[in-house]
């Protein structure tokens, strides 16, 4: 049971959710593939206090801070950081503490493991290779590294980037038969090589014929990292530093290779059911490698989103292509090439639905959300630690996300239907709901 919950928890959480109903805004068109972190159905109201916030020319920082405080006080998470930017202003905030056994409070610039947000950065490197003419999106794994995916040399870069390769997720083997968080921690607190992770994936059945379906798998991005290192003659860590972190001004970001996080940071904690918090400070980031080993800050993620949307890392044409959902059965999140789309709280100028783009990042004890409008003019990133497994999760992190998105709208939102001056957003699902698609495949 824990194995399936962990696999769901460190996957793309939007994969089993559906689009929100935003009060006062047009709903998503049928078949749009829009996805959200929150589940469909239930909703909560976010008040815009005293007429401030969306469209008013300034952010309601008190309301944003209250939303972060609720993540800690209401939902019981340990620490949270957030960065919000848009036409209405730019704000960074935090709440809670860095670790449960020490008093220092969390600060906006604290580092966290951002897990699968790494995929957007690795995808940027791949698209750079496409832009330079070394690769095309139809370049096959076998043409770069024959035999790396034994029996599946014809898998393309496009299929790896979009999770349509059919490659199984090696984490199922890594986590193994762990039934407690302590056993899980022991399983992931040792060094792993990329070759070992790919070998673990090969121990599982291939999921489907490449290109025929969609299924999120961390194996895809470990392979992409290996291919990038091979053709450039440099480790992925160095490529990210030189071609993504540096150009984007992400000076507090690193591709982690050891459990130690340098500088001020939020310690990873997880909770199973209603049990005590368990520290995951010892887990080795090599278990994620190119799929999720980056350590960053909410402020640096904002810089990344701005650089990506502005065409400073990859041409705008390729960025737009990456943000276009691939047509594949099962692609509920609207996943493109290293990014997926989220139905925006703010409608387009003509009142039609529009999307923000980004990725979530689910490590063993931290969770990150990072999204931007297509032109980069509105951006929200937040990370929190102390996440639960197999227990009802709170609405507060997604409440903060949607409040921030609402406050960055360039024009005031229409009046909400169910409560004057409110924006309706969905509630976050319980983890078992998120895990349901995995349970049928991995358990029993």
Explain the overall architecture:
With about 450 residues, the protein is of the alpha+beta class. The chain has a single domain (about 1-440), classed as DD-peptidase/beta-lactamase superfamily (Beta-lactamase). About 30% of the residues lie in helices and about 15% in strands. The protein contains 14 helices and 14 strands. It has helices spanning about 1-10, 60-75, 120-130, 140-145, 155-160, 170-175, 180-190, 195-200, 220-230, 235-250, 300-310, 315-320, 395-405, 430-440, and strands spanning about 45, 80-85, 90-95, 110-115, 255, 270, 280, 295, 340-345, 355-360, 365-370, 380-385, 385-390, 420-425. Strands 3-2-12-11-10-9 form a six-stranded antiparallel sheet, sandwiched between helices. It has a three-stranded antiparallel sheet with strand order 4-8-5. Helix 8 crosses helix 9 (about 220-230). The protein is globular and about 55 Å long. It starts with a helix and ends with a helix.
Largest sheet: 6 strands, antiparallel
Gyration radius over CA: 20 Å
**How many helices does DSSP assign?**
14
Total strands: 14
Number of domains: 1
Kindly list the characteristics that best describe this protein.
disordered C terminus, 14 strands, alpha+beta, 31% helix, Beta-lactamase, single chain, 444 residues, three-stranded antiparallel beta sheet
